[in-house]
Amino acid sequence: MGENNNELDILKESAKEEISNAQNEQDLNNLKANYLGKKSRLSEIMASMRELSIEKKKELGQKANEFRTKIEEFVENKRQELLEKLIDAKLKNDAIDVTMPAKKFKTGKLNPLTQTIRELEDVCTGMGFMVEEGPEVEEDLYNFELLNLPKGHPAREMQDSFYIDENTLLRTHTSPVQARTLLKSKGQPIKIICPGKVYRRDNDDATHSHQFMQCEGLVVGENVTMADLKGTLVKICSHVFGSDLRVRFRPSFFPFTEPSVEVDVECFKCHGDGCNLCKGSGWIELLGGGMVHPNVLKMCGYDSEKYQGFAFGIGIERLTMMKYGIDDVRNFYIDDERFINQF
Q1: What is the CA radius of gyration of the chain?
Q2: Distance between CA atoms of residues 320 and 42, nearest Å
Q3: For a FRET experiment, which of 67, 198, 254, 300 has its CA 20 to 30 Å from that of 214?
Q4: What is d(CA 186, CA 163) in angstroms, rounded to the nearest whole number?
Q5: What is the dihedral of CA 146, 152, 157, 162, to 10 degrees?
Q6: What contacts 12, CB < 8 A, 6 or more positions away?
Q7: Res 124: pLDDT
Q8: Which residues, given as ranges, of the chain have pLDDT below 70?
Q9: Which CA distances in Å does 108 have to 282, 325, 342?
Q10: How far apart are CA 335 and CA 333, in angstroms?
Q11: Quick check: 212 and 198 in contact, CB under 8 A?
Q12: What are the angstrom distances between the C-alpha of 109 and each of 64, 319, 337, 343?
């Protein structure tokens, strides 16, 4: 047993020298296998332990573990040394001349839809609105039921939807964010806008897309009137189109507002005289809105006798196409720099 101990000491010194002289990772791995592998002298010594007494087995086993630990330490230290040499050599060869002119980077531009959303957020937050967001994969409860559209309601057919299962769908408008915010606010006044992507089954053509963007607004408080809605929309239209435009309300129907209105703005190209953009009418249909239906307030925990509210929804693509004279909605989604860089 003493001979084995002495042999391990000799092997350790030999390994230390050979490992210190290793030139690369491959040499290092080979040396580790020679000293610690299945065919190494260490394995042979360990195999002979079965012939020793329990006391000598314990002594030799301790010696073998110390030997293994030392060899692994030698290998790891050498590996770190080789790595540092490799990094130093690479840095030396790849030295950067800091006096050279820097590369020119092209500055990108925002998609016009993003620009429009930021314009709306800018004017609305200036009027005290908060920006709220919500999930695009939505529950039927928030997308329809809490908005006064129970199962079987005929108005659901106005929004041909992508259903994932019986109670889950891709949201058809950003109104579910309003419902979620009403529930979260627990009967307190709110003033929010909800921009984001929505999805409806539709033909992809020059004016329609299965995915599009909306920005909806909601105000709930005491003594909120239709005049507040009109003043808000006049401010938004003036900010986006750059002039004080007249706004016209026409009666309409939406299940979640009562009364409901379609909102037209004076044609910003001809200012009411009639042109090809407004098809000679002097007006452009822009968005829908109205006073929040009392049923919606009640379902979301509000006292409809104390609180009133108004809501509106703007199609971002429609607004942007009118503002910039874009004739094909698909241009927004093809990521063509020639198109994006025009705005």
Answers
A1: 37
A2: 78
A3: 300
A4: 29
A5: 70
A6: 67, 70, 71
A7: 94
A8: 1-5, 95, 97, 155, 158-159, 203-208, 243
A9: 37, 22, 12
A10: 6
A11: yes
A12: 67, 19, 9, 8
Taking only the tens place, the pLDDT of each residue in 143-179 is 888 988 888 777 677 667 888 888 898 998 899 999 9
CA 21 to chain CA centroid, nearest Å: 53
pTM, 2 dp: 0.65
Query: What pLDDT digit, counting tens, does each position of 128-141 carry?
Result: 999 999 999 999 99
Tell me how far apart the alpha carbons of residues 319 and 113 are, in angstroms, rounded to a whole number: 9
d(CA 126, CA 149): 32
What pLDDT sits at residue 139?
Answer: 93
Fold of 112-340: BirA Bifunctional Protein; domain 2 (3.30.930)
The residue type found at 106 is: K
Token couple for 239: 């900010």
Neighbours of 126 (CB within 10 A): 10
